[in-house]
Specification:
With 395 residues, this protein is α/β, with parallel strands linked by helices. 41% of the residues lie in helices and 15% in strands. The protein has two domains: 217 residues, Type I PLP-dependent aspartate aminotransferase-like (Major domain) (Aspartate Aminotransferase, domain 2, 3-Layer(aba) Sandwich); 132 residues, Aspartate Aminotransferase, domain 1 (Alpha-Beta Complex). Helix 4 runs parallel beside helix 5 and helix 14 packs across helix 16.
């Protein structure tokens, strides 16, 4: 295995961390497409299942390719341990379900990805876990929501799709005082621009489908935390319920990590350019971008993040009709509900990712009918600006 060296820069660790070569001495990480593993003896199998002997026993439990991805992600995040999952939503669900039981209480930010909100608002209550939703940036609401039975907090920042920012350190302090844990969905910031564990969070989750793959190829998720958190709250849940990532997808994600900094830094630079160029466009009611000084939480962003985002929120004049005219007029940028891709993508959250919510709930979440979420890709920024400009003229 490549020796872990904390003195290596991030870019170096993203290429080498967790790589354990077979006797063939391959350059690229080996892909272990196997369901099970063979033991030298029955005694060895027994020890393996008792965790008294290193090695894999079944790919639902562990796999060398998956382990390499987990170790590289842990190095990137600055976490003690990581566990990969089949999707980002599997990571969120496992992280939350593994922490609570009937009678417990969860506090979550109101502005969440639609499926994440369903987990805390619909799924957990089916098993006797109550949930309170709060206005994420308002720390007083987090404090007031705490009950004696509160066990876990959940938030995402920047929020999907409004790009609302939440004070991770502030919420983490409230969680600690309440004896609860804080889980942060860090997808929009990426591990390059925000480190929730360093700000006091207990657990970080990603949809690796997004920037980590970054090329629209496969699904994946990952949970990162302390070794104790993973072993006591996550490991058994994953092992017994089986939201397992395939070794092939883990291998693809390993390849994605090698170019993560190059891609995200380029995409973020282009997003900042586009945000500045379009900010005063007459066909936009509002443009929100975490890298601009006029973001409502610009001061917090400077304290909490060391970069902007690949994402821009555009509130197009004319509501849904205006947003649809704009999207349908795009020639280069694709309509898709994915994000973090090498290709620039737009989606209309009110009719896709957040369509199940009533208009008044979407308004509470900062999702007007004219909101279009733009994920900036790797195309030349002038080509993107020209496409956005001509499409806005059609509104």
């Amino acid at each position: 295995m490549t020796t872990s060296n904390p003195d290596y820069h991030l870019e170096t660790r993203l290429v080498h961390e967790g790589h354990e070569r077979t006797p063939f001495g391959e350059t690229s990480e080996a892909l272990f497409l196997t369901q099970g593993f063979v033991y030298e003896s029955a005694e060895s199998a027994e020890r393996r299942f008792l965790n008294e002997e290193p090695g894999s026993s079944y790919t639902r439990f562990s796999n060398p390719t998956v382990t390499a991805f987990e170790e590289r992600m842990a190095s990137l995040e600055g976490a003690e341990a990581a566990r990969a999952t089949a999707t980002g939503m599997a990571a969120v669900t496992a992280a939350m379900m593994g922490q609570v039981q009937a009678g417990d209480h969860v506090v979550a930010a109101r502005a969440l990805f639609g499926s994440c909100r369903w987990v805390v608002e619909d799924l957990l209550p089916r098993f006797g876990v109550a949930c309170t939703l709060v206005n994420g940036p308002n720390l007083d609401e987090w404090r007031k929501a705490v009950r004696p039975e509160t066990k876990a907090f959940l938030l995402e920042t920047p929020a999907n799709p409004s790009l609302e920012i939440i004070d991770v350190a502030g919420v983490a302090a409230i969680a600690r005082e309440a004896g609860a844990t804080l889980t942060v969905d860090n997808v929009f910031a990426t591990p390059l621009f925000q480190r929730p564990l360093g700000l006091g969070a207990d657990c970080v989750v990603y949809s690796a489908t997004k920037h980590i793959d970054g090329q629209g190829r496969c699904l994946g998720g990952v949970i990162l935390a302390s070794t104790e958190f993973i072993e006591t709250k996550v490991q058994q849940f994953l092992r017994m319920t089986g939201p397992t990532i395939s070794p092939f997808n883990a291998w693809v994600l390993l390849k994605g990590l090698e170019t993560l900094t190059l891609r995200v830094e380029r995409q973020t630079a282009s997003a900042g350019f586009l945000a500045n160029a379009l900010h005063d466009h007459p066909k936009l009611r509002r443009l929100t971008y975490p890298g601009r000084p006029d973001h409502p939480q610009a001061e917090l962003i400077c304290r909490q993040m060391n970069g902007g985002s690949t994402m821009i929120a555009l509130d197009v004049e004319g509501g849904k009709e205006g947003a649809f005219r704009f999207m349908n007029a795009l020639r280069l940028i694709c309509i898709s509900n994915n994000l973090g891709d090498a290709k620039s993508l737009v989606t209309h959250p009110a009719t896709t990712t957040h369509q199940r919510f009533a208009p008044e709930l979407r308004a509470e979440m900062g999702i007007p009918d004219g909101l279009v979420r733009l994920s900036v890709g790797l195309e030349h920024r002038e080509d993107l600006l020209a496409d956005l400009g001509q499409a806005l003229e059609r509104v």
